């Protein structure tokens, strides 16, 4: 296509925008790397939303700028946007076509443990980068035993507000309203939410449903030289006593309830999309068709 794209109406697939508002330490880098590897072949753009100090809440004026960019920046369509940003409801800004939201979440304690050690030791993705807590040798178990702030139950409160959004109540730790809103958004505003523990299945479903972006993603994930996996170094698994202590917290109970809710929804979607044969999963072919079409054409 020659000439300025802004003068040309984009067809449905070419006008598509996906937002992956990634939760930290949920295998988000592993998944995003696949999008980067496929973008040239599948002809779409990938853009990282880099907020100052990774603040997941945007100012009101930045929300307006962000919505305007995503909806009117035709040169970047089709587009895959990713970043540590909480859910933003585009309908509030009067846009006619909303982006497609996707996400991945993780067992809340496993996510916190991974983040705790990531801040101290980094990972194998950028091993030379100095992390914020580098030099702190205290284990996660020791931190919990001493009642440290970096492993406090309040630090579990992250996946709920990321799905809840930009309302103040979303970020009030332990808010039942925030959890209910997060569940509502997950069901009504997200195209698909996967779980870290079943990332390959998440990728497989995306490839089947949105091949314009994800054609070839499953094979790439399975055979990639790095397997696209980013591993936190020096991570020590917590003891049963440490886990039990965290599980006494009402905050853990709410975050875990949300995680279980997301997992159940994902497994329901998967059960209606794939079948297992000889230990392998395969995507179901189209299972609906049209009939009794009237009036009859000549």
UniProtKB/TrEMBL annotation:
Topological category with respect to the lipid bilayer: Single-pass type II membrane protein
Name of the protein this chain belongs to: Heparan sulfate 2-O-sulfotransferase 1
InterPro entries from the UniProt entry: Heparan_SO4_2-O-STrfase, P-loop_NTPase, Sulfotransferase
Keywords assigned by UniProt, alphabetized: Coiled coil, Disulfide bond, Glycoprotein, Golgi apparatus, Membrane, Signal-anchor, Transferase, Transmembrane, Transmembrane helix
Function: Catalyzes the transfer of a sulfo group from 3'-phospho-5'-adenylyl sulfate (PAPS) to the 2-OH position of iduronic acid (IdoA) or glucuronic acid (GlcA) within the heparan sulfate (HS) chain and participates in HS biosynthesis. Required for metanephric development of kidney formation, suggesting that 2-O-sulfation within HS is essential for signaling between ureteric bud and metanephric mesenchyme.
Organism: Rousettus aegyptiacus (Egyptian fruit bat)
PANTHER family reported in the protein's UniProt record: HEPARAN SULFATE 2-O-SULFOTRANSFERASE, HEPARAN SULFATE 2-O-SULFOTRANSFERASE 1
A Gene Ontology molecular function term of the record: heparan sulfate 2-sulfotransferase activity
Annotated Pfam families: Sulfotransfer_2 (PF03567)
């Amino acid at each position: 296509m020659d000439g300025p794209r802004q003068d040309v109406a984009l067809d449905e697939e070419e006008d598509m925008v996906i937002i992956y508002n990634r939760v930290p330490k949920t295998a988000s880098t592993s998944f995003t790397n696949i999008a980067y590897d496929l973008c040239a072949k599948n002809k779409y753009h990938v853009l990282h939303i880099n907020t100052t100090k990774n603040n997941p809440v945007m100012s009101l004026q930045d929300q307006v700028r962000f919505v305007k960019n995503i909806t009117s920046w035709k040169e970047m369509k089709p587009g895959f946007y990713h970043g540590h940003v909480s859910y933003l409801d585009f309908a509030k800004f009067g846009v006619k076509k909303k982006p497609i939201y996707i996400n991945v979440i993780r067992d809340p304690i496993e996510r916190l443990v991974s983040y705790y050690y990531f801040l101290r030791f980094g990972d194998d993705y950028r091993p030379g980068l100095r992390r914020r807590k580098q030099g702190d040798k205290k284990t996660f178990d020791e931190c919990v035993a001493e009642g440290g702030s970096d492993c406090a139950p309040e630090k579990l409160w992250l996946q709920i507000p990321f799905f809840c959004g930009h309302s103040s109540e979303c970020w009030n730790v332990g808010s039942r309203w925030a959890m209910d809103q997060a569940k509502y958004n997950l069901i009504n505003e997200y195209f698909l939410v996967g779980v870290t523990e079943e990332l390959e299945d998440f990728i497989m479903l995306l490839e089947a449903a949105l091949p314009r972006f994800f054609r070839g993603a499953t094979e790439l994930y399975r055979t990639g030289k790095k397997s696209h996996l980013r591993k936190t170094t020096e991570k020590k698994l917590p003891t049963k006593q440490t886990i039990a202590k965290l599980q006494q917290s009402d905050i853990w109970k709410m975050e875990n309830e949300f995680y279980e809710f997301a997992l159940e929804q994902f497994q329901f979607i998967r059960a209606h999309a794939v079948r297992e044969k000889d230990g392998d999963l395969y995507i179901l072919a189209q299972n609906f068709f049209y009939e009794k079409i009237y009036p009859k054409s000549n």
